[in-house]
Amino acid sequence: MIGIFEAALELQEFCDSEGWESCFIGGIAVQRWSQARVTRDVDITLLTGFGREQPFIDALLDHYTARNADAAQFALRARVLLLASPSGVGIDISLGALPFERLVVERATTFEFAPGVGLRTCSAEDLMVMKLFASRPIDLRDAEGIAVRHDKRLDWGYIEEQLVPLAEAKESPQILRELERVKKLSSTL
């Protein structure tokens, strides 16, 4: 796990040195806001906007190793750049451009995971939105963990405000049913 945090700190320092806006999502944010679990990669949202991704991709590919042969084209198509740190830790960079992604980065705060390892992570609410949107079994467990640990402090109105349009765009009303289930779970504790 130490290697993950070291790779994340190096990535954050690189992004900051470039003047880029970013924050950690995924497993690192889960370590902060939900139940601790093993994570094998570093997930980060990097604000690139639409149509301005290439300079970010080029700089990152100059600094890191690509995990797939067609990394730049894949990133432009899928909006995720798959890299590896010098120590071999997987890095998934989401090329952020949506208003929600901007909010995620703007609302991020630094958390010290270990002495000298302060990482900017998304808020608990934004992580909840992302986990419910993804709705894989592991994501739903993470969402439950966030609700259990932080229920009284969560802004459920904000979560719903952000999640409704995303669920509608995905045409997945079950996402909103999961939100209600997780809210009920947290209120029974």
Features:
189 residues; alpha+beta; Beta Polymerase, domain 2; two-stranded antiparallel sheet; 19% strand
Describe it.
The chain is an alpha+beta fold. The chain folds into 2 domains: 2-122, Beta Polymerase, domain 2 (2-Layer Sandwich), CATH 3.30.460; 126-187. It has helices spanning 2-17, 26-33, 53-63, 71-78, 99-107, 124-134, 137-150, 156-170, 174-187; strands at 22-25, 41-47, 65-66, 80-84, 90-96, 109-114, 117-121. The strands form 2 sheets. It has a 5-stranded mixed β-sheet with strand order 1-2-5-4-3. A two-stranded antiparallel sheet has the order 6-7. β4 (80-84) and β5 form a beta hairpin. α6 runs parallel beside α8. It starts with a helix and ends with a helix.
